Amino acid sequence: MIQFLFSRLASALFVIFGVTCLVFLLLHMVPGDPVEVMLGESSQPADREALRRALGLDQPLLTQFGQYLGNLAQLDLGKSLYSQRPIVDMLLERIPATAQLAVSALIVAVLIAFPLGVLAAVKKGSHWDQSAMGVSLIGVSIPNFLMGPILILVFSLWLGWFPVSGRDGFVSLVLPALTLGTAMAAILSRMVRATLLETLNEDYIRTARAKGLSERLVVWRHAMRNALLPVITLLGLQLGVLLGGAVITEVVFSWPGLGQLTIESIQRRDYPVVQACVLLISLTYVVVNTLTDLVYGWLDPRVRLEGGR
Amino acid sequence: MPRLLIFLLALLVVGPALLGCSKPETDALRFGISSAPINLDPRFATDAASSRINRLLYQRLVDFDDAYLAKPALASWQALTPVHYRFQLINQQPEFHDGAALTTADIKATYDSVLDPDTASPHLAGFNMIDAIEIIDDRSIDFHLNKPDPLFPGRLVIGIMPAKLLVTDHPFNRHPIGSGPFQFVDWPEEGRLQLQRLNDKQTFEFIAVKNPTVRVLKLLRGEIDMLQNNLPSELVGYLAEQEEINLIKSPGSSFTYLGFNMQDEDTGNLNLRRAIAYALDRDAIIKYVMGDAATPANALLPPDHWAGNSDLLPYLHDPDKARLLLKQAGYVDGKRAQIIYKTSSDPFRIRLATVIQQQLSEVGIDVDLRSYDWGTFYGDIKAGRFQMFSLSWVGIKTPDIFRYVFHSEYIPPNGANRGHYSDIQADELIDAAEAELTLPQQAKYYAQLQAHLLQQLPYVPLWYEDHLFAARKEINGYTLARDGNYDGVIHVRRD
Fold first, then answer.
1. B214 vs A165: CB contact, 8 Å cut-off?
2. Pairing of strands B192-197, B475-476
3. What's the CA gap between B262 and B227, in Å, rounded?
């Protein structure tokens, strides 16, 4: 297990370093100048030059990259070009909101997808199956930028149950979590149905039924455990996506998360903030994927045994 | 497995509470804005939202009247010589929000800080005419210039900051302390800024809601009390029909135009540019696309600006004249003009560009419309990689913009003459205007210059976009400013 963790850590460091280099270079290669964006159209050339010098943007790209890596090695993410605030503070402000939304959306997705997927698999070919998959098709077909405003219109404006947007208490979390969760649930429920169907055809399931176990136990205890592996992979990846910031949902609901910060920083060409955000997102992916692999071991002893050898 | 589901359900209910969500303010007046302020230090603020909030937090020496003439704010002034201005505090005892008196030492410290290259203020070059700042006494301060500048008082619009905090590197960007009508309360998260109006202790919350539809829905549901600008015309029309909403509109000064590359074989042809001007039906665009929320423009400065020209005659929609001019430009025997038109990827700008494309097509000009993300688009425009583009000038108050945009010495990187417009007469009029020592004399030359530019069309002027303010019925007393600032909140109230 320790050997496994070390190999993951080494590859993670390599991935993160690669992402860091790529993002730095790509950001500086795309057209657009942070100084121009900051000062606006009517700025004076001397102002632009002075600001470029003050921000260190007049240095050769390699020098800037070297400085950036040097600071990064000391865990110094630097300051925002725009607000002059330490980027760590900015990230720390956003992470709780993003984590809160990501976890809630994931829970909503699981709560919808598992019963729906199991129902569709157990009642395969019936109206239940068709209805469940129909609902999931609708869920996956409606993009979040449409789902968000529809939910706002119905539940905020007509029914008055939840606030339209913002992060003002628990109630404000419901609609964004539902928007994100339902889209994810649609994909997840199809995955649960497919893998469960496959598992239900296995010999050991027939054995379990022959032993006289109830259908509930067969499905939930025996079949589900094996059917979960690919679902967990998908969940891990989706959680990574969510923790990286669900940009559209965050914008629609004015949710002060990482996605909004990343997009706004890209638009302003606030290089250090974009770099820090992407670094954090890649780090999140690596951590979530490593955790997913560990959960594999917990769910399937065979994976653990292979890892131990 | 069902137990796992129950656990997840419980986590969904309890989790957010454990993670800590804040309760909303209920007695505050909530103002919906499209983008959050970024930096509340006036030495560094460059974005519109920060500048508008800073006007509420800090006082400036000088402000502008309706004709964009400089008027006293914190101080009145006297030009002792063309290079020597004396400013005198008007108010008997101005105070900062921490109770300290505002004196000329604070004014000097603020401007010294902006002028200090180590501060790296983006506004530094705007004050390169200042030679020295000299305190006469607690209430009088002199500015010595290195060259005459009749527009100088109007440049002193940086918010005054307390000298004693400037030396201690106080973080004004997040904890501003000024002497304006509002004081800072809290900034719990990026998109929620709380201020308090000093005269009645009314709390205000500025809430950033980027999506215009969501901003309107929040207004309808009462989650915000008011909002200003940045709404597409269909939402404006929708709001106008709502009983619980008051909508007010007032003329603005943001100038939208079509710009041309004067070095290009096609767009460098005056007859083609005139054909474009006559082919456009600006009134129809304003009425049907912009929801009547704009005023046709003939020049960069509005006609009621002190340096504006109210006698300019517009290019009225005349497709026949446009076709004739196209022929004169050399497009004969069924040959159609081909122009590449660049615009940003903003959906509203693309919609406007599509209408312009259609109108030009009707007279024989084929427009290849290309939209790009802002950074790429702006990069292309600055580098002169365009035939035709549309953009707006926002917040222009002084006529020195003409040198920056149309003088032949101000081709990038020296200025914003991006179309490489080079015209001896225009250069001479700009130089002559700036050589005059009085504003009325300058205005005379600028009026001539604007007539000349309208005739030569380095820009085809389109319109000045109106400002819009929508509020719930119980909100009263707000007045819209010409430049779209938020000063209306000084008097707004909930009845």
1. yes
2. unpaired
3. 40
Return residues 108-127 of B near A (CB < 8 Å). 117, 120, 122-126
With CA atoms as reference, report the closest residue to B182 among B314, B91, B53: B53
- B325 vs chain A: nearest CA distance in angstroms? 32
CATH architecture classification, B253-465: Roll (3.10)
Q: Record the pTM.
A: 0.81
Q: What CA–CA distance (Å, rounded) separates A189 from A131?
A: 12
| Separation CA B199–CA B181 (nearest Å) | 7
Kind of pairing between the strands at B337-344 and B388-393: parallel
Measured between alpha carbons, how far is B361 from B323 in angstroms, rounded to an integer? Answer: 11
Across the range B293-321, mean pLDDT stands at: 95
CB-CB neighbours of B1 under 10 Å:
13
- CATH 3.40.50.2300, applies to B59-109+124-162: no
Contacts of A166 (CB under 8 A, 6+ apart): A172, A253, A254, A255, B24, B191, B192, B207, B209, B218, B223
Token match 């790509």: residue? Answer: A26
**Tokens at B339, concatenated:** 């122009």
- Cis upstream peptide for B413 (omega within 30°): yes
Distance, CA of B298 to chain centre: 19
Domain ranges of chain B: 3-55+180-244+473-494, 59-109+124-162, 253-465
Query: Pick from B2, B174, B209: which is nearest to A220 by CB?
Result: B2
- Please classify residue B232 by burial: count the beta carbons closer than 10 Å to its beta carbon, then call 0-12 exposed, 13-18 middle and 19+ buried: middle
Contact: B217, A156; criterion CB under 8 Å: yes
Q: Per residue in B418-468, pLDDT tens?
A: 999 999 999 999 999 999 989 999 999 999 999 999 999 999 999 999 999
- Note the ipTM here: 0.72
Tell me the residue type at A290.
T
Tell me the residue ranges of DSSP E strands in B155-244: 182-189, 192-197, 203-208, 226-228
Rounded Cα distance, A283 and A202, in Å: 38
Instruction: Kindly report the CATH number that applies to the domain delimited by B3-55+180-244+473-494.
Output: 3.40.190.10
Phi, psi angles (nearest 5°) of residue A251: -70, -45
Residues in chain A with pLDDT values less than 70: 1, 40-43, 245, 301-309
